[in-house]
Write a sequence for this structure.
């Protein structure tokens, strides 16, 4: 069984929560289902490369910041 990555999911959840949007609203912005967002946030899967770019653009952060869960760039805090 694949190990879950809660760090990425938790970071994505925090970004979404700070923006004040639901999983459903976020999913609509990305053109996917809210179930996919849920899977990303609970660590059972991760977004594809094209979705990483869309997520980073949505939150106005770099892909590096997204992949490092905010550890590479503390300027956003």
């Amino acid at each position: 069984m694949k190990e879950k990555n809660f760090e990425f999911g938790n970071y994505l959840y925090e970004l979404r929560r700070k923006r004040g949007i639901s999983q459903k609203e976020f999913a609509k912005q990305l053109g996917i289902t809210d179930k996919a967002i849920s899977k990303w946030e609970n660590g059972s899967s991760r977004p594809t490369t094209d979705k990483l770019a869309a997520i980073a653009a949505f939150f106005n952060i770099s892909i590096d910041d997204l992949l490092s869960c905010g550890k590479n760039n503390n300027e956003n805090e």
Q: What stands out?
A: The domain at 6-69 is CATH 1.10.260.40 (434 Repressor (Amino-terminal Domain)). Helices lie at 6-19, 23-30, 34-42, 49-59, 63-67.
